Amino acid sequence: MYTVIGPVASRALRVLWMLEELGQSYEHVKAAPRSEGVVAFNPAGKVPVLIVDGTPVTDSTAIIQFLADRHGAMTHPAGTLARARQDSLTQFLLDEFDAALWMAARHSFILPEELRLSGIKNTLRWEFERSQHVLVQRMGDGDFVMGDEMTVPDIILSHCLSWALAAKFPIVEHRLTEYLDRMRARPAYKQALVR
């Protein structure tokens, strides 16, 4: 049994969703970032944390890739060209989507007010829109990022697109809007939301 630490309204959703897709049992501890229940396992105070056999694993991407590798699902084998492409798409999403949204969040409510730069959000929205055009050109022809098979980048992209809507970052590519609707209709995603 796994233990996931972190509220649903955070990157912990990625881990919960992955576990639901994999059909794995888990306990969910909804501890907030920087709370005692988090800092005990991650000195940085960041969520999510996955406890595996008493060992904490941090960073949502590392966690979901670990789970995919461990259970042999939603990933391509290490050392294959398909895995290289998957890892490339994962890094692209982290650099171009997640990073822009995280920076906007920091300048909205995380940093002390005197350090926030509200104007930066316009630049980040522009970059986010530009990255959508690039991603659509890199996506496969099927229902998922890489084609016909759901993989780790799908969890990250779907989470980022949902986050974007909440942060009022427009989704300008129709294909991504349709994609997000399909992903959010998945039973595993819906189950993860109610944990």
From TrEMBL:
Pfam families given in the database record: GST_N_2
Residues in GST C-terminal domain copies: 79-195
PROSITE patterns listed in its UniProt record: GST_CTER, GST_NTER
InterPro entries: Glutathione-S-Trfase_C-like, Glutathione_S-Trfase, Glutathione_S-Trfase_N
Domain GST N-terminal stretches: 1-75
PANTHER family: GLUTATHIONE S-TRANSFERASE GSTA, GLUTATHIONE S-TRANSFERASE-RELATED
Protein known as: Glutathione S-transferase family protein
Origin species: Sedimentimonas flavescens
